[in-house]
Amino acid sequence: MSQGEPVRVCIIPTGGTIASIYDSESQAYRPGLSVDTLLSYLPEGMGKIEVIKRELFQLDSANAQPHHWQEVASCIKATYEEIPDLAGFVVLHGTDTMVYTASAVSFMIQDFGKPIVFTGSQIPASMPWSDGPRNLRDALRVAAWADLGETCIVFNGEIHRATRVKKLRDRDHDAFDSADPTPLGMLARDIVLYEGRTKRHNLIPRFDTRLDDRVFLLKVFPGIPPSVISRIVDMGYHGIVIEGYGSGNIPTQENALTGPIKQAVSEGCSMLMSTQCAFGQADLSFYEVGKAALDVGALSAHDMTSEAAVVKLMWILGHTRERDVVKEMILTNYVSEVTLSDSKTIRGTSPMNP
Ligand code: ASP
User: Fold this and answer.
1) Distance, CA 122 to ligand 1 centroid (Å)?
2) Is residue 96 pLDDT above 60, yes or no?
3) Final residue of a domain: which of 207, 234, 263?
4) pTM, two decimal places
């Protein structure tokens, strides 16, 4: 798409630091700036982009819940149906849980064929040294002109795949890193996009916001009481992502987690092993303490981030709780969220839309 052509981009604000103002009553920052104010910080030269606004929330993303993910996806769907020739979408979002929302939108809107760009900032846009105007400008550039057909996070000049990115820094402008593979691209004088991304296309998008939010994320630590797993099952959870050590390892001797995992599986709770390493993956066949989890019925998240694994499991359980189908869907690569030699990559058909 030529940068000379006028294009239309939809901005969906949801709050976050980028839109935050100082509240003298609480003496802390909270979202409050409108899209118009945020756009007023951008240079005039963005005029080739016609912005369509869909004010959605003014939330600190620490307050985002799974139903907010569904509302973001539904807003994109409704706007897309109303204005199909939009070049792309920008979702303004707090950085704290941006990865979860962006991952959820990835699973809920597949084969979109246009960029859905999440961005935000580390410093409120109202401050002169904020990274917000730059990130908003970059996000608009990507949404308007990048040859990208998937959901991404644009931040600090980098373009990350939504399901492969983690928030690693709470202050630096460089808040996010792609866990693996490398980012989708970067912004310099031109928008530089790497191989392996999904390009713009004209397939018919598939929207499916079904979700079961009864998924728990549990981090293993020395001394973790095994009974915590049965307590979680008793609370009505249908899935648990266990962040094991290193390649997905768990205690198997004193305070062994294997018995409770086996029991949870037998009660119909899906158990998914991921890693608590920022860069790494669950490889449950290497150590006895990893294989033991497999042997009692846990599934491997392979190289999915824990965030993507939690969202994917919620999305899968929104469709089925049947063990074999859950397993098959975990081993299916829907939106490039996982790398598996034996996985199925979905394009055009999936268990969500047979
Ligand atoms: N607490 C903020 C939020 O996630 C942090 C940020 O946006 O950077 O909404």
Assistant:
1) 7
2) yes
3) 207
4) 0.94
